[in-house]
Amino acid sequence: MQTPEDFLRDGGFVAASEIDRDALIAAFVSEMDKGLAGKPSSLPMIPSYIGVDGKIPQGAKVAVLDAGGTNFRSGVVTIPPKVEERVNQPMPGVKSEVGVDEFYSAFANEVRRVKPLATVDKIGFCFSYPADATADLDARLIRWTKGIKAPAIVGQFVGKELLSRLGGGTIAIVNDTVATLLAAKATEGDREYSSYLGFILGTGTNTAYVERNENILKLSGLDPAGKMIINAESGSFSKIARSRFDLAMDAKTQTPGSNPFEKMIAGAYLGTIGLEIFKAAAKEGFFSKDAVGRLSGLSTLETIDLDNFAAGFKKAGRENPLDAIFADATDARLARRLALPVFERAAVLTAIHLAAFVIKTGEGISASSPVAINADGSTWYKTKAVPFADLVRRELDDILVKRRNIHYEITPQVEDAPMVGAGIAAML
Question: Is the pLDDT of residue 374 over 90?
Fold first, then answer.
């Protein structure tokens, strides 16, 4: 009988130890270059029109809005980073369809509440729905996600419309990944960073980094001596081989064929990959008859349950279906050998693509001024099956520091990074 490792390999699943790091980094950089030049690429490389130069004024206070899910948040961001006067409320259009005036009134009312407490005139707004960024730091909404029902807003410049209802003012709109990058500046203090990355790994994933204007060939008229944050939409990277288990999972999603890289590392998908592996292994006779029977009745598997099972962790108050399915000790051991590689691969792929973005910055050549990486998201911080962040650091140490003499630093976690980063965008 095959070992679990042989079974995965025969299904096209490349184990973490067997991934060609250099080839994948080269593929990422190639796709970045094409995207920056406006050529066909799986990485759109969206300009943010925001730089990172300048020190953040200590003691500054900024009125901030944060929208990107089914709730929106408002408050005052202060430096050192802290969110005060916070209010969370449902996103307009999440419960029922809203028109233009009702939509913007909800945001305008919150700006009126917190703006008098701010010392910075510009408003910071983290707006994380699909939108085109503009040179004046506005955002034109492309489409809604998360079930928001406000069709009249699609195509509008959100900042312009909001400011018109406030009687004027200025605003800086960024998405959550750009904001996460900017939040790294709140951690620097007297530390000198040569460049910055923002990385989100939760239910989905994305990366932003700082690029030289001279390399952003699809835009004209930029100061070649300047730099700009690029929203890479890195989850859409497609130049990577996927196993038959990945393909089977992808076919069952609402967006088959899209965001292939995201679907190999992000929390929305790892549980389903595990389920596809288990069911395929059951057909090959890996488990007992009882386990096969119980497994056949499982139609979905959340990543938290695959993670907890692989880690041997039982969460109080939460029944894990895998504990009952693989109640036999032999079944459980085999199942864990099939599950752990899913998380190990995700960690190594995370490190490889972060390394590619660090390399692309062209910075980090001195240990005294490393490239700062601010990571955010539940998969990064809460995975239990493997020491996720430690595995990523180990890979980065080898790929960047040992082999290329490029220096990086993963910054301390910034609470409320999207709001903090939006505030910093307004300050800079």
Answer: yes
State pLDDT tens for residues 240-287: 999 999 999 999 998 999 999 999 999 999 999 999 999 999 999 999
Residue 140 to residues 137, 145, 175, 377: CA-CA distances in angstroms? 10, 14, 12, 26
d(CA 241, CA 300): 24
Q: Cβ contacts of residue 85 below 8 Å, gap of 6+? A: 74, 75, 76, 113, 114, 117
Residue span(s) of the chain under CATH 3.40.367.20 come to: 1-48+187-413
pLDDT tens-place string over residues 342-361 = 999 999 999 999 999 999 99
Tell me if 176 sits within 8 A of 200, measured CB to CB.
Answer: yes
Note the pLDDT tens digit of each residue in 187-225.
877 789 999 999 999 999 999 999 999 999 999 999 999
Tell me yes or no: is domain 1-48+187-413 CATH 3.65.10.10.
no
Predicted pLDDT of residue 213: 97
pLDDT one-digit tens code per residue, 155-198: 999 999 999 999 999 999 999 999 999 999 888 777 899 999 99
Query: Class for domain 61-174, per CATH?
Result: alpha beta
pLDDT at 334: 97
All CATH 3.30.420.40 domain ranges in the chain, comma separated? 61-174
